[in-house]
Design goal:
Blueprint lengths: L2 E4 L49 E2 L1 E2 L6 E2 L5 E8 L2 E4 L6 E3 L15 E4 L8 E3 L5 E4 L5 E6 L4 E6 L5 E5 L3 E6 L4 E6 L1 E12 L4 E11 L1 E3 L6 E6 L2 E6 L5 E3 L9 E2 L5 E6 L2 E6 L5 E5 L3 E7 L5 E6 L9 E6 L4 E4 L11 E3 L5 E5 L3 E6 L4 E6 L5 E4 L6 E5 L4 E7 L2
Parallel strand pairs: 2-25, 3-29, 4-33
Antiparallel strand pairs: 1-9, 5-36, 6-7, 7-8, 8-9, 10-11, 11-12, 12-13, 14-15, 15-16, 16-17, 18-19, 19-20, 20-21, 22-23, 23-24, 24-25, 26-27, 27-28, 28-29, 30-31, 31-32, 32-33, 34-35, 35-36
């Protein structure tokens, strides 16, 4: 089982990201297999979109500047953990890496932990190596997926009991409503599949054909997946499993949207994107731009880097709104060495950690908010709350959340 024991009383600039090394041992090599996938007799569907729409040229708006907003409050969550993987919408439950005791020692029972109001001080131990965790929108359930050992489980937050579990190594997994999970497995063999899990019936249904997968992206609702294996890329419909290959040379440096709805190329001749799955062309602008992009979770907003001067250094920042088809340069926007950049759901906020605290840029109001704390290098997006930032300190970390005014 994923959940091993209940303690005694008492969550960037790279296009492809791989999981970091874990500070605790990997789980056993043969985790509980869970329910077998349901058989599928339907033929593998092939996605054949119609003719692409006419190319779209974006408008460049006047530059956006920022004025100082009031100081947001840092609310403590948890102390002395290596990582915080997920926080519930009500901020009362979370999944973290193994924590330390107050005297700085490891717990006797090591592993990631689910903390809820009912699990006591130490929480429930989850035997998972570098887990991916995500709470449902209502906070009643949490999805935990591990790499290495390959397991995926859904737990009830109120009771910390396992509702569903399967032996699967997923590159991404998403809730599709409260009773279903859609995920794509990963494998060096051509057998990685899109899967749909019914939590109530404890069944897993494979959708579409198999392929090799190391990395993938998907929007918050799991309606589409883009997979990658050494530059071999596929677009996969998250409802049917219908798929099509992306005709992008493997050597081309692209920025793949987190929403699996477009990919973009930056170069000295400008920044352009290809919309998926219809192949529509989006010409953002002709300013020299980098292919390094920070995306909103649904892929409708992006923070890009461009060269404002003839020296060709990409040290300018611009904001792309794909829905409005606009791009605008940012004035007074700063990046910090060693920091992570997060674009929040809906493109409302861009948050940046730094050695002196958290910066939150409001892209709608033109405000910048600063929460002082030394340091706050690690920041994460809360997928359920567009104006919340989860932030952490260095090394063994203390974590806080900030609700941007």
């Amino acid at each position: 089982m994923v959940v091993a024991a209940l303690a005694a009383t008492s969550c960037k600039d790279r296009v492809v990201r791989y999981p970091p090394p874990a500070p605790y041992p990997a789980p056993p090599s043969a985790p509980y297999p869970g329910p077998p996938p349901a058989p599928s007799s339907a033929p593998d569907p092939v996605l054949r979109p119609g003719p692409p729409p006419a190319p779209v040229v974006f408008s460049e708006l006047a530059p956006l500047g920022f004025t100082a907003g009031r100081t947001p409050k840092l609310v403590p969550i948890v102390k002395n953990v290596y990582d915080l993987f997920a926080l519930s919408p009500d901020a009362k439950s979370w999944v973290s890496s193994d924590s330390l005791t107050p005297d700085g020692k490891r717990h006797q029972k090591e592993g990631s932990r689910l903390h809820t109001p009912t699990t006591g001080q130490d929480g429930v131990v989850i035997e998972a190596w570098v887990p991916y965790a995500r709470f449902s929108a209502d906070g009643s359930r949490v999805l935990v997926s591990s790499w290495g050992g390959g397991s995926l489980a859904v737990l009830d937050v109120a009771t910390a009991k396992v509702l569903f579990e399967t032996n699967a190594e997923a590159c991404q997994a998403r809730f599709d409503g409260p009773n279903a999970v859609v995920f794509h497995t990963k494998s060096p063999e051509p057998n990685a599949r899109l899967m749909r899990a019914d939590i109530s019936n404890r069944t897993v249904t494979p959708l579409g054909a198999g392929r090799r997968v190391e990395y993938c992206e998907a929007p918050p609702d799991g309606s589409a997946f883009v997979t990658d294996w050494n530059g071999e890329r596929w677009y996969v419909d998250g409802r049917t499993g219908a798929a099509m290959p992306l005709a992008v040379p493997a050597s081309t440096e692209i920025a793949m949207s987190k929403g699996a709805n477009r990919y973009c190329v930056g170069s000295e001749s400008g920044f352009r994107c290809t919309h998926l799955p219809d192949g529509g062309q989006e010409q953002i602008w002709a300013r020299p731009s980098s292919y390094s992009v920070d995306w909103s979770p649904e892929g409708q907003h992006a923070l890009i880097r461009y060269a404002p001067d003839p020296d060709g250094v990409y040290d300018g920042w611009a904001w792309v709104d794909f829905g409005a088809r606009t791009v605008r340069r940012l004035q007074g926007f700063r990046g910090y060495s060693g920091s992570t950049f997060d674009v929040h759901p809906g493109g409302q906020i861009v948050s940046i950690g730094s050695g002196s605290g958290l910066y939150a840029y409001d892209m709608q109001k033109g405000k910048v908010f600063f929460a002082a704390h030394r340091p706050l290098f690690e920041n994460q997006v809360d997928p359920n709350l567009p104006r919340r930032v989860v932030v952490g300190t260095d090394n063994v970390k203390d974590f806080f959340y900030v609700d941007v005014p």
